[in-house]
């Protein structure tokens, strides 16, 4: 006997996304968060990558846009830092990498609201202090404001961050590397002695011109941007100090760091956004131990910015419907294990490019400069730029079957669908959080057998000028599980659809 279907530990972006997905699917979900109040820490500045496409398919992108810090300028120009250089995706037309400004506290507020609207019980000030599992349930020990209590659940997901207690209690190893390096990133107002140039560089009284972008020195990396009317400053330097994430960085600390790295006393104005971070590259050996799962930072830490929230929220979208199938009893054998397989493979790709970014960024001297210049030259060609964009967006998940067209296992991105970004025809395509058969060619012979899976499978029809396939079976995290080629005869397509639907959704 269980009290709830799923306990989610941690109300960060991953836990709240997961809770909202489970709530959408009607699963009784309890979120335990040890902080009594939502965090106000300036961590991620927004959402980036494939999660934006997925929110569009859920029909929810407008809600997140409305919460953005600056709706008029919500989607910044597709120019992204990558290992000490900037990649410019504007040359590709529709960028494979997108971003939405939405500071993490605001993102978490939207996600929390979305989860509670769907009936999820979010308990703040309630800390998981123990857990054990048996064949029937996970038994959780909680310390709440009124003392200790126990909860039994069918499944538990540790979304409790990089120092995950759940991971520790489950005994799951977390191998990898931590770098003895501190990065500081800030936006401040420009004082009178600093003029912001049109090209993004700075003109500093008594110092001269400091160019826009990155400057590698013997002591670390410095970058600045005077675009947008504010002064953006970044430093990275080898430093063994262990800072507490709850201890905010000060302007004086940043100025001292600029002095050490660049050798310049750069006047800084009022702080608008101040962050400091150290980096680790780690991944849990498994994301599952029986009824206990890991997601988000608890499962992986990446040594470059801008990718972690995307990865954690995509973990959540991959896991929610699989847990639902298990709670409801229709999940085919092995479905829950595909979570670890798919999301570990995706994190491997993210580790690959973020580790490479560290090497690219930290390479010093003329050799390092030459490496970055050469890399940038290569990254102006379409194919490498597309590949880098897909890696950064988290759509290169490293295991798609490329013999099928469109590739099975790949995300159904706008590019795969031959559609515009935010094509209104696909807003809400995966709005119920369930898999969908997308019929692009009025194929009644495929729609009819799909209906045998009832509420497990939505059937959606659309027309496109140029279609990539006659029909696609799309999983709730927007990955393609099966495709019928254009004009594929009914005899082969129907049996292949039945087989794919049975593999993912069990017997009809
Ligand atoms: C300065 C800084 C800047 C960043 N910038 C970016 C960025 O631009 N883009 C990006 O994608 N990422 C960024 N990140 C990383 C991003 O913030 C994290 O990847 C993200 O917060 C991870 O989300 P999560 O939900 O997995 O874990 P967390 O956000 O760490 O949430 C875990 C939650 O679990 C709770 N918890 C822990 N233990 C327990 C327990 N025993 N019981 C109950 N609750 C518990 C914690 O209180 C916490 O609320 C940045 C991080 C930092 C520090």
Q: How is the biggest beta sheet arranged?
A: 8 strands, mixed
What percentage of amino acids are in beta strands? 25-35%
Per DSSP, the total helix count is 13
Number of strands: 25
- Structural class per helix/strand content? alpha+beta
> Which regions are unreliable across 5 or more consecutive residues at pLDDT < 50?
none
Task: Detail the topology: elements first, then pairings.
Blueprint: E1 4-9, H1 13-24, E2 29-33, E3 46-48, H2 50-58, H3 61-66, E4 79-82, E5 85-88, E6 99-101, H4 104-117, E7 121-124, E8 127-133, E9 138-144, E10 147-158, H5 165-170, E11 176-188, E12 194-196, E13 202-204, E14 208-210, E15 213-217, E16 220-225, E17 231-238, H6 251-262, E18 271-283, E19 288-289, E20 292-294, E21 300-301, H7 308-328, H8 335-362, H9 365-378, H10 382-393, H11 414-417, E22 436-439, H12 444-450, E23 458-461, E24 471-474, E25 480-484, H13 490-505
Parallel strand pairs: 1-2, 1-10, 2-7, 10-20, 22-23
Antiparallel strand pairs: 3-6, 4-5, 8-9, 9-10, 11-17, 11-18, 12-13, 13-14, 15-16, 16-17, 18-21, 19-20, 22-24, 24-25
Helix pairs in contact: 1-4, 1-7, 7-8, 12-13
Task: Explain the overall architecture.
Strand 8 (127-133) and strand 9 form a beta hairpin. Strands 1, 2, 7, 8, 9, 10, 19 and 20 form an eight-stranded mixed β-sheet that branches. A six-stranded antiparallel β-sheet has the order 15-16-17-11-18-21, sandwiched between helices. The two termini are 27 Å apart. The chain has 508 residues and is of the alpha+beta class. The mean pLDDT is 93. Helix 1 (13-24) runs parallel beside helix 4, helix 1 (13-24) runs parallel beside helix 7 and helix 7 (308-328) runs antiparallel to helix 8. It is built from 13 helices and 25 strands. 44% of the residues are buried. It binds flavin-adenine dinucleotide.
């Amino acid at each position: 006997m269980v009290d709830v279907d799923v306990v989610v530990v941690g109300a960060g972006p991953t836990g709240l996304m997961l809770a909202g997905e489970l709530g959408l699917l009607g699963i009784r979900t309890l979120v335990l968060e040890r902080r009594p109040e939502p965090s106000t820490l300036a961590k991620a500045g927004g959402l980036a990558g494939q999660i934006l496409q997925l929110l569009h398919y859920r029909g929810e992108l407008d809600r997140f846009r409305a919460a953005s810090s600056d709706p008029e300028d919500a989607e910044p120009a597709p120019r992204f830092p990558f290992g000490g250089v900037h990649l410019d995706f504007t040359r590709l037309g529709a960028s494979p990498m997108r971003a939405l400004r939405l500071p993490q506290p605001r993102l978490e507020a939207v996600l929390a609201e979305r989860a509670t609207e769907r009936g999820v019980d979010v308990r703040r000030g309630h800390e998981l202090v123990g857990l054990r599992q048996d064949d029937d349930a996970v038994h959780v020990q909680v310390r709440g404001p009124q003392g200790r209590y126990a909860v039994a659940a069918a499944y538990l997901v540790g979304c409790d961050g990089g120092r995950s207690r759940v991971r520790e209690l489950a005994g799951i190893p977390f191998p990898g590397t931590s770098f003895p390096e501190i990065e500081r990133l800030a936006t401040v107002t420009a004082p009178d002695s600093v003029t912001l140039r049109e090209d993004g560089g700075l003109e500093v009284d008594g110092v001269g011109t400091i160019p826009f972008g990155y400057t590698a020195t013997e002591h670390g990396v410095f970058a600045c941007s005077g675009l947008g009317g504010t002064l953006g400053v970044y430093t990275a330097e080898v430093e063994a100090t262990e800072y507490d994430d709850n201890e905010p960085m000060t302007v004086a600390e940043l100025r001292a760091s600029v002095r050490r790295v660049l050798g310049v006393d750069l006047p800084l104005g009022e702080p608008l956004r101040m962050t400091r971070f150290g980096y680790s590259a780690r991944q849990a050996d498994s994301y599952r131990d029986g009824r206990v799962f890991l997601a988000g930072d608890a499962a992986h830490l990446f040594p470059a910015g801008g990718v972690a929230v995307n990865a954690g929220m995509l973990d959540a979208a991959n896991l929610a419907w699989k847990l639902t199938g298990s709670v409801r009893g229709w999940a085919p054998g092995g479905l829950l294990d595909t979570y670890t397989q798919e999301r570990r493979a995706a994190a491997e790709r993210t580790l690959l490019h973020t580790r490479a970014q560290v090497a690219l960024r930290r390479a010093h001297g003329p050799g390092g400069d030459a490496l970055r210049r050469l890399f940038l030259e290569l990254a102006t060609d379409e194919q490498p730029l597309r590949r880098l964009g897909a890696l950064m967006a988290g759509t290169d998940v490293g295991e798609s079957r490329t013999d099928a067209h469109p590739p099975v296992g790949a995300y159904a991105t706008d590019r795969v669908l031959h559609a515009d970004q935010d094509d209104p025809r696909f807003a809400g395509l995966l709005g119920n959080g369930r898999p969908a058969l997308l019929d692009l060619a009025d194929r009644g012979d495929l729609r009819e057998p799909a209906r045998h899976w009832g509420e497990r499978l939505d059937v959606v029809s659309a027309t496109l000028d140029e279609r990539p396939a006659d029909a696609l079976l799309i999983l709730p995290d927007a990955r393609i599980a099966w495709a019928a080629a254009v004009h594929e005869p009914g005899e082969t397509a129907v049996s292949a659809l039945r087989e794919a639907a049975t593999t993912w959704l069990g017997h009809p």
